[in-house]
Design goal:
Two copies of one chain form a homodimer.
Chain A lengths: L12 H15 L11 H8 L3 H13 L3 E4 L3 E4 L2 H4 L24 H4 L15 E2 L12 H11 L2 H7 L9 H11 L12 E4 L2 H12 L5 E6 L3 H9 L3 E8 L2 E2 L3 H5 L2 E4 L13 H13 L3 E5 L24 E6 L11 E4 L2 H14 L5 H12 L2 H27 L13 E5 L6 H10 L2 E2 L1 E2 L13 E5 L8 H11 L1
Parallel strand pairs in A: 3-13, 5-6, 5-8, 8-9, 9-10
Antiparallel strand pairs in A: 1-2, 4-11, 6-7, 10-11, 12-15, 14-15
Chain lengths: 481, 481
């Protein structure tokens, strides 16, 4: 009995059967000319409908894996004979480890601190995790429709080939004409580069611009992945303080050769850089002949109607390198982001990207371009705004009631609240105790250059928690505090 | 007149109209409540069918962009009012360039030599280009079907979230159970990492293992992208000679701390490493406590039934780092590859990949897994074999007739022939003259560490040239020589 059906699997029964027949054929368990069990018998043995078996058999005939012979049923086609049989496993080749790997590695990489979420956070009733969108809101039928269009024989001519250096011109057009203007940015095609998500954008920028010992200012608290990426380049990291008006403009800003900031919506505190600070920051950068990386993540989450244009829109020296994300407003697994910067820098980044990965997958670039061009992105953003806006208000109210004074509501929207717990709080310990109550939260220490400074802080994301669970979750948390 | 239809565009008329309405809405050219032209009038003005206009209008109603009012036609919905209007362009913000960019850059990156193809190679009748598959052979309906399955609401739960470190378990299963055994490799899940194509695999390996001044042996001639990637790490590159038995085992092999080789099918000469050399190479690597990177590109192109297992299958010390490509056997724009190596190294590579780009796009990983599991990959490979095999025989015959003695037919298949022209030939000049005759070929110099050594060589790819064009193309080339 070669085949088994497991009804507890998510995979449809048809797929299970088809995949097992293909696997048997490739392993040589089914050979060319061999007679397949009759649909009646197989259906009975596997306790599935005969129609299912017949559909699978017919599809396999269509794919030339089986041959249907009149009155004698189905036989394995000669594709089985033409398929390379795996050579036997080489004795002793189970990958022993005689290599002392540690001596080959750079110890810096392994020592980096990262955000860690419980892998099974979806199993908890109050998951205040950050950065995981509510997949049920995503318009799958629209994405499927765009994907189908991107996979037409005609469109495929554009993207099947290795584009080497180039990005999908249609995606560049959409970013340029629809996404950037909303942020006050008007860029030429040659000033835009598509990346494998915003994080890949930061990696490319760091690899091109940062060198051992260069002074790089980063917000503290700030985005741990950016810190880790810059650290990997051997940069000397300078902490830039953050208060309720955003990053503090002081001598640390002046000392930085490159600055990394999240002005519209500081990560992780959610504060928006004040107009005065914006001016002061750009002035300081110009006076010190420095460069500024603006990470405009979550630029599409603004529930209060007072969106602040990107800092890049006020850049009069070409010193601002703008990083945008498409994953945040589509789905993170898509891994698409982009950089807007002066043409000469984009050219250098493109040369490095060619070396690193050539380009983002062409089919996803085209599908995303269609998704934006046909308005699906716009209506998805509206849907997200509504859903996240409601949760945002519910969060603000619950926090105000149960944890008064511990947070500043984000001015620009976003998908989280940053909480300053009471002095002496150990948010790591709190997170562990909260899990017992079904509440998932993110301790703050990982966002700080000095972990001890962040012990009293934590973050509550609300993109993955149901509206009606918010109040109870906050209440349980308050009880623990 | 806001809208225009351009019939010379590939884009379907429906899409053109829909996209222009969305664009007008986002730019504020259409405002909430505004009456749309009647389908009759718009159809007349644009010279398109009224049905087309009605379908577009109905779809826009479905997407809440338009509202259909009984007897009064279609109006713009209030989504237009809720959409952020772009702030005006900031005067003086057209990205001037006051930054002296060159001083920020590493001059090494800009100086690298790359393969350059005429961008419009598809316009020439005899395109002997390399590495561009024949898109007409790709089973688009099967890919669409898998893509549709990967985009089910249920499956999306698996891949919509940011997987951070993880790869799609189903793709790992397929690589492990169907692709690797054919190469004689039996690996554990923890020994496999998915990358953004084989080139990204090399970049990751170099970034983890290579340091300034480390001695790295590369085949000469060899793969220019690998040479460039290792050069970017500051490695000291040692040329390894190549003859008709593959890479020559000499003191340069012994001196290399890391070796990069393409044993099954040497790039670009197409020769297969002989059994004696295979043994000698592995022995030398073990004796010198070195590491070996095996690039098994085009492992699925073997028209002669004598596939050689991967070197990795004989690795008894865990010193072979295997790099495989899925782009070659699917479509290059997909950008999927993988690494097989000891678990400890994979762990380190995964940590770096997390920093660089997190992971390959999840939807493509899942679609590819289904494409392999359901046998479509297998039958596509068969189809490719047949088509490329025919072209391979035609090429071999034509070269034998018109350019006798100038090439060794590849033992392992592949998609190109490597030609040693007469002494004193300048293949760059030949390529330029051949273009005038409609023939595209690739000069050999870029594959050599010393470009002058490669002047007499060139490469003829046959994956993109029609079978019946081969002989005439070679004939024209012979006439030029």
């Amino acid at each position: 009995m070669l085949f088994t059906i497991d009804r507890s699997q998510q995979k449809p029964v048809q797929n299970q059967l088809r995949e097992q027949i293909i696997a048997a054929l490739m392993k040589g368990q089914l050979v060319a000319g061999e007679k397949m069990p009759s649909s009646r018998k197989l259906a009975k043995d596997l306790k599935i409908s005969r129609t299912t078996v017949m559909i699978v058999y017919d599809k396999l005939v269509e794919g030339n894996f089986l041959v249907a012979a009149p009155r004698s049923g189905y036989r394995v086609s000669d594709i089985a004979a033409k398929t390379d049989k795996p050579p036997p496993m080489n004795p002793g080749a189970e990958m022993p480890n005689t290599v002392k790997w540690e001596k080959w590695f750079d110890s810096r990489l392994g020592a980096q601190r990262n955000i860690v979420k419980p892998l099974n956070w979806q199993d908890y009733p109050y998951p205040f995790v950050y950065g995981q969108p509510d997949a049920s809101l995503f318009p799958l039928p629209a994405w499927r429709e765009c994907s189908r269009q991107a996979m037409s024989r005609l469109a495929m001519r554009d993207w099947a080939n290795d584009a080497v250096m180039a990005d999908d011109p249609e995606l560049v057009t959409e970013i340029r004409s629809k996404l950037l203007p909303k942020r006050g940015i008007y860029a030429d095609r040659s000033e835009i580069l598509i990346t494998l998500g915003a994080q890949n954008a930061l990696y490319l920028i760091a690899a091109v611009l940062m060198r051992e010992g260069m002074t790089v200012g980063i917000e503290d608290p700030g985005y741990p992945d950016a810190r880790n990426i810059f650290d990997r380049r051997g940069a000397f990291l300078i902490p830039l303080g953050v208060d309720e008006d955003g990053v503090v403009i002081d001598e640390n800003v002046a000392r930085s050769e490159i600055l990394y900031v999240t002005p519209s919506h500081q990560y992780p505190t959610t504060v928006t850089l004040s107009p005065e600070r914006r001016k002061a920051l750009l002035t300081s950068v110009a006076e010190n002949n420095a460069l500024l990386i603006e990470d405009d993540f979550e630029s599409d989450t603004n529930y209060r109607g007072d969106a602040v244009p990107a800092l890049k829109s006020e850049d009069r020296d070409g010193r601002v390198i703008y990083v945008g994300s498409l994953s945040k407003s589509m789905f993170p697994g898509l891994r698409l982001g982009f950089i807007v910067a002066p043409e000469r820098l984009i050219k250098e980044l493109r040369t490095l990207r060619r070396l690193m990965l050539r380009h983002a997958p062409s089919n996803n670039q085209r599908t995303t371009a269609l998704f934006i061009a046909q308005g699906y992105h716009l209506s998805y953003i509206h849907k997200l705004h509504q859903a996240y806006g409601e949760r945002w208000h519910r969060m603000a109210a619950a926090l105000n009631t149960h944890l008064p004074g511990m947070t500043t509501a984000p001015r620009f929207g976003g998908t989280s609240f940053w909480i300053k717990g009471p002095g002496g709080l150990d948010s790591e310990a709190l997170a562990a105790r909260a899990l017992d109550q079904g509440v998932v939260l993110e301790p703050g220490a990982v966002h700080f250059m000095e972990p001890a400074e962040g012990a009293r802080y934590f973050r509550l994301g609300f993109s993955s928690i149901a509206l009606d669970r918010i109040e109870e979750g906050i209440k349980r948390l308050a009880a623990l505090l």
